[in-house]
Amino acid sequence: MKPWVAAILYAVLSAITFVVCFPLLWAISTSLKPKDEIFRWPPTLWPENITFEAYHELLFGSSVASAPGAGVAPSAYFLTWFGNSIIVSVGSTIISITVATLAAYSLTRFRFWGQRAVPYIAILGYMVPSVIFVFPMFLTMVSLDLTDTLFSLILGYVCITLPFCLWLMWAFFRGVPIEIEEAALVDGASRLQVFRQIVLPVALPGIIAASIFSLIVSWNDYLFGRVFMNTMENLPLTVGVMHFFDGTHVDWALMMASSVLMTLPMAILFGFMQRHLVAGFGAGAVKG
Amino acid sequence: MTDVVVQGLSKSFGSNQVLKAMDLRVPSRQFVTLLGPSGCGKTTLLRMIAGLEKATAGEIRFGDRRVDTLPPGERNIAMVFQSYALYPTMDVARNIGYGLEVRGTPKAEKQEKVGAVAKVLEILHLLTRKPKQLSGGQRQRVALGRAMVRRPDIFLMDEPLSNLDAKLRATMRGELRRFHLDLGTTTIYVTHDQLEAMTMSDLVVVMNEGVVQQIGTPEEVYGKPANLFVAGFIGTPPMNLIPAQFRDGVLTVAGTPLPIALPPGAPADLVLGVRPQDVTIVEPGSPGSIPGKVWIVELIGSERLIEVELAPKLRVTAEVRATHRAAIDDAVAIRPDPAHLHVFDPATGQAINA
Description:
CATH architecture of the largest domain in chain B: 3-Layer(aba) Sandwich
Oligomer: heterodimer
Shape of chain A: globular
Helix content of chain A: over 70%
Distance between the termini of chain A: 34 Å
Structural class of chain A: mainly alpha
């Protein structure tokens, strides 16, 4: 590549990267600013005086005493919400991946009626906007007496993540040669041993890719949390942090610190799993 | 040691019948090749012997033991797949030892056996590598090692050399044959490559459309083809199959009588088979020759193929020394070797023995 082409390319890529990263950088910057600096005009790109007050309040409780009769400050629930989000994301991901992996395996390895249609019907289900089925699902949860429970959210997230996970795993298993399973059967392994010792290790990149997808979708969901949950103790993070907006003013420092803390687990996960993610989605792209 | 007996074995996939009531006996310690074109049912038969496909009807026995109801792992067989089918996440040592591992063989014993097999196959230095770090030939050896390490009753091999380049294939042919002679394990080998079948086998089973066409030694299937299919399938270049007439006890081709005796009841219209190696090019008018003209000449290394047109759309190929010169449209004659003529009934396709 000629130097001037490379220079232009890098300039364009740097600009795009900056635009993409700016909201996160701005959130980090705002979360570290003292309250008086947040609204200063012209705004400062980087805080003149760095403070971790917002993080301290979220993680260790309010540094400012609540007014008598004002009740518990929303920030006091932050760690509960964080825990809720972890429970529902991890819970729904475990269920989605388990069901998707077993279903996709049977769809690619056993012959039965309707076998070819299932993945396509599933992906069609994924294409329906969740806002269309969130209310029927809410009514179902009401009739099952599950509203305002973390389990209802887990079920809701399974409904939106399972179809794509199934599709991804199906595409992945189609690329796994059946001969290696047959070789293991001839070697004397049982079906379960074949699945556990041969198939699962081979399918690991696909499982990781599907897991990350499921985690991100359920971690970032707002709609289901907003509709299904109502008590402060049971909210997921995405819905909970909206309480930093009390109708008249927004506590931007808390909001931004929450955003940064919310982003952190997914960013760390991405960092560790990036390699598998590319391999997993790559297999899906080629074989699907 | 175990012989393999297949009785009345049929297999259908929906309305497609792949194997048709097949009977076959593979004698103990023999290297038997299932040879046939794509879709003839040879791989299906092998997979049924392995237990990877269920029979629609019939039975399979290993010695006195009926095995067609047993899962593959309980048949004490080993199989080498066309794609090698190595476990991609395991290193070479675990690939070879996996069969011992699932059978609960003690670790020390397993290591010892894997080491011994790896030494024979000269892959000791590869034991810690993953399959993707190996060349095609090395993968082939690992697949063989995996098959050998358990000392199975029967080796099943499904076109194991077809993914190798020509040179390596030639080397591996010799090595496979050598391993078989050393181990003496009953081996069933599937291929569509007649060179592999002819060079490696004790017995060749020629198959077509789910039916055994002929079982015999390589010499027998080459020298005495049982029917038109075997005659046309075995041999490179293929046998010339020419229409011939049998009238008043005399066999004629393109109007020229040939000195071959046939039983009195032979049909009037026949097919005469003669291999290109058994056809000589002679001067027109030579006794016992059939006149024609050169249609095409092809050099294939030390030999030259000369295709001679005897009549419109009736051509015969002769394989001669490369030093033999011939030009297109030259008037020549061919003389088939009377000792190596094959005669077939076109109605049944079966050979008629003189």
